[in-house]
Design a protein that fits this description.
This protein is mainly alpha-helical. The chain is built from 28 helices and no strands. It has helices spanning about 1-25, 30-45, 50-65, 65-85, 90-100, 105-125, 135-140, 155-165, 170-185, 190-205, 210-225, 230-245, 250-265, 275-280, 285-300, 305-320, 325-335, 340-360, 360-375, 380-390, 400-410, 415-430, 435-455, 455-470, 485-495, 500-510, 510-525, 535. Helix 10 (about 190-205) runs parallel beside helix 12 (about 230-245) and helix 16 (about 305-320) packs antiparallel against helix 17 (about 325-335). The radius of gyration is 25 Å and the shape is globular. The two termini are about 45 Å apart.
Length: about 550
């Protein structure tokens, strides 16, 4: 195993997996051989080689003679299945394995309970009986693995996530905070790479965006450095979400392009939440709605409740931007009705408050605000959002300090879209209060912010309000389409910036010959004949060059 560690340090996970496979082939004792084959399968799983991992698990099963080895076979089979197609049954299978491991190895049991919790989070309302979050959380808290007197970071994380479902955010916060801080201060913790998605989830459940972004970036760096392609796909999906929340829609699109390329190469899957939110904030209904509808349909087919909820949430964002408030309220209400998915519920409630107020459904908005206070924390992000929502439901001059407070709080965060939305709502309120000069100041700032981000629907909503307040702005011309697919746009950008075909191929995990094939198609679509002409054929970044979903 030490040799495998050295091989991983030099050549990444694939090198370590190959060394372990060769060692297993030379091992005569069945028990020892099973251990090495299982270790090789685990490395291949992390590297994104799912078919090889599955084949090795089948080999190990024949030699697995102990209860622990048999449990590890079942665990790896569940992890491989979940990586290939998360859905209804994964949480039940992984919870059963965690229970098997509970009396054999407390550390492995905790890791498997975390796997089961994550699988249950993804399945949501579609999980099979016995695999819903309350059931998984209750079984976790009652397990022997949770009786450790001096818990480490993974133990604290598991306790916090299970307590969140069983007893609510306030009871869970201390354990989640300790776990997140421990991983932040120990970036080389051996378990972090395997559990990075749940550590980042814990940060966002605490409404700690800065730590969420830090952990997501660290997750991506670790995955790149080790060649862990399956985790890299997951981390890029989260990076897309982080960058969209920051208002950096171009960086979000770049993360999506890279993630899609690696997912296609490895057979893993890029979760659609980031892509749907990116499309919603871009605000182009003809692009966003087909993606959102496809996400919702695939969620039902694959048994992914979290994707179903995300589709409804992102539709509410899109429709609020477009000013279609009745439709936004309907979509948000569907998202809120999804059960036991705390990660998104706290994000969709502000959309429901805004949409319901504008649609004349005050009672719905008031109920949503009450629920939001149960999810909110005390950092600038949730306090700013709650103030913004409360202002929408406050009559007369008492609303003004709430809007001002929301802007002050959200300006202290990296969440540029949220701050711009607070200014937009404040400007709309000021105009209705017959204060056009003050309204124009807020609406102009909102319009400039949304325009710089590329959030077209919200920018247009601010422009219309500015016009109603007496300031005329030229309606932006539609962006010229290049006709390139998302991957072609990514390759074209890299080639335009001077990268060679082998360099582009290495970054996108495709061959140099495949890059050349794509470039020939790009030249035809752009009406050019060489790489040199790309600089003129493609607009500069920030001037309308879009890398949207295919």
């Amino acid at each position: 195993m030490q040799a495998a560690g050295r091989a991983e340090a030099r050549g990444g996970l694939s090198a370590a997996a190959g060394l372990l496979q060769r060692a297993a082939a030379l091992t005569e004792r069945p028990g020892k051989r099973a251990d090495r084959v299982l270790a090789a399968a685990s490395e291949h799983l992390q590297a994104g080689s799912l078919q090889t991992a599955a084949r090795l698990v089948a080999e190990a099963e024949a030699d697995a003679g102990t209860d622990l080895q048999q449990a590890l076979v079942a665990r790896l089979r569940g992890q491989i299945g979940w990586a290939a197609s998360p859905g209804r049954s994964a949480s039940v299978h992984l919870l059963r394995v965690a229970t098997q491991l509970d009396g054999l190895d407390a550390g492995l049991a905790r890791e498997t309970y975390l796997d089961a919790w994550a699988a249950s989070l993804v399945a949501g309302r579609f999980a099979e009986p016995g695999g819903h979050l309350p059931e998984v959380s209750r079984a976790t808290l009652q397990s022997r693995a949770m009786a450790e007197p001096s818990p480490g970071p993974a133990h604290l994380l598991l306790r916090g996530l299970a307590t969140l479902i069983d007893d609510g955010p306030a009871a869970a916060a201390p354990s989640l905070r300790q776990a997140v801080d421990a991983f932040v201060h120990d970036p080389d913790h051996g378990w972090f790479q395997k559990g990075a998605n749940l550590v980042a989830t814990a940060a966002v459940l605490l409404w700690d965006f800065e730590t969420f972004a830090l952990l997501s970036s660290r997750w991506t760096e670790h995955a790149r450095a080790s060649g862990a392609l399956a985790p890299l796909v997951g981390s890029l999906g989260v990076q897309e979400l982080v960058n969209t929340w920051r208002g950096d829609l171009k960086a979000a699109a770049a993360a999506r392009d890279e993630g899609e390329t690696i997912a296609e190469a490895t057979g893993t899957r890029l979760f659609p939440l980031g892509a749907a939110l990116l499309a919603a904030y871009r605000g182009r209904a003809d692009e966003a709605m087909p993606l959102i509808k496809a996400t919702a349909a695939a969620a039902v087919e694959r048994g992914e409740g979290i994707s179903s909820q995300a589709a409804h949430w992102t539709e509410s964002v899109l429709r609020n931007g477009l000013g279609q408030y009745a439709e936004a309220a309907a979509a948000a209400e569907q998202a809120v009705d999804e059960t036991h998915l705390p990660q998104i519920t706290g994000w969709v409630l502000p959309e429901l408050v805004e949409a319901a107020v504008r649609a004349g459904k005050r009672d719905v908005a008031e109920q949503a605000l009450r629920r939001l206070t149960e999810h909110a924390g005390d950092s600038d992000w949730p306090v700013g959002i709650e103030l913004r929502c409360r202002a929408l439901l406050t009559d007369g001059t008492e609303a003004e300090p709430l809007y001002a407070g929301a802007i002050e709080r959200l300006d202290r965060t990296p969440l540029r879209p949220e701050a711009a939305r607070a200014r937009l709502l404040y400007g709309e309120w000021l105009r209705r209060e017959q204060r056009p000069t003050d309204a124009r100041d807020q609406l102009r700032a909102a319009h400039e912010g949304f325009s710089a981000m590329g959030a077209e629907a919200f920018a247009e909503r601010a422009r219309r309000e500015l016009a109603a307040a007496g300031e005329k702005l030229r309606k932006p011309e539609s962006q010229a389409a290049t006709g390139l697919t998302s991957q072609e746009q990514h390759i074209a950008r890299l080639a335009r910036d001077g990268r060679t075909n082998p360099e582009i191929g290495a970054e996108l995990f495709i061959s140099a010959r495949t890059v050349e094939w794509h470039l020939r198609k790009i030249y035809i679509k752009l009406g050019i004949t060489s790489r040199r002409a790309l600089r003129e054929a493609l607009p500069p970044l920030g001037d309308g060059f879009s890398a949207g979903p295919r």
